[in-house]
Specification:
This protein is an alpha/beta fold. The protein has two domains: 145 residues, 3-Layer(aba) Sandwich (Rossmann fold); 67 residues, DNA polymerase, domain 1. Helix content is 45%, strand content 11%. The protein has a six-stranded parallel β-sheet. Keywords: Magnesium, Metal-binding. Its cofactor is Mg(2+). It holds the Pfam family Hydrolase.
């Protein structure tokens, strides 16, 4: 079995479900702009940076605005989002996540966060799981959005791990592609059809152990090579 040196996790939709807070904040902004923004539209924003998300919404509404105005709107959305996440607590960690992270650390596997969110440190603080991460690579430390592999390559570098010995956990297509572009193994968290490019897809972390997952991903990767 291939030796796993590090595991890198996306935040939203993998460790915690903040997607609804993003949606509510973007929806409030879109309503003010007279744009009909739906849950289906919100799927287009998964794994996408704040400014790129705003551009997608403006395109939906056929609106063209100055960069100055866009910067102001992005800040406005973030303030609404912050109001939501400041009310978060440990109960919002997705089932099994804390046990899985704790087990990884006991095995001596490096653990890093790789997220486009600039609010990642605050969310980890609210969830009280910041101590379970050896490195946090967030939106303040990268300039290129997924599917560019920058966030995961920086995470591997921070953990002194070779990309081929890293597993990335992602719930978004762009994130799976970023992992592949980094030369890492990818575990999709969510729908198998949507995340079909991953080496392995899981529904979540409840009852899952690192040893079992490592065995599964090794078997699936071997089968794909045959």
């Amino acid at each position: 079995m291939k030796k796993i040196a590090a595991c890198l996790f996306d935040l939203d939709g993998v460790l915690v479900d903040t997607a609804r807070y993003h949606f509510l904040a973007w929806k409030k902004l879109a309503d003010e702009l007279g744009i009909d923004f739906t849950l289906e539209h919100n799927e287009l924003l998964k794994g996408v940076s704040r400014m790129d998300s705003l551009d997608i919404i403006l395109n939906i509404g056929n609106l063209q605005l100055s960069q100055e105005k866009k910067n102001a709107l992005a800040d406005q959305k973030n303030q609404v989002y912050l109001e939501y996440i400041l009310q978060m607590n440990e109960e919002e960690i997705l089932p099994g996540v804390k046990d899985f992270l704790t087990a990884l650390r006991k095995l001596g596997v490096g653990v890093a966060l790789g997220s486009a969110s600039k609010n990642a440190p605050l969310i980890l603080e609210r969830l009280k799981i910041g101590n379970l991460f050896d490195a946090v690579i967030d939106g303040t430390k990268v300039s290129k959005a997924k599917p560019d592999p920058e966030v995961f390559l920086k995470g591997a570098e921070a953990l002194a791990a070779k990309p081929a010995a890293c597993i990335v956990f992602e719930d978004a297509i762009a994130g799976i592609e970023a992992a592949r572009n980094a030369g890492m193994m990818a575990v999709g968290v969510g729908d198998p059809q949507t995340l079909s490019r991953a080496n392995l897809v899981i529904s979540g972390f409840r009852g899952l152990t690192p040893e079992h997952l490592f065995q599964q991903i090794n078997e699936h990767t071997t089968k794909k090579r045959l």
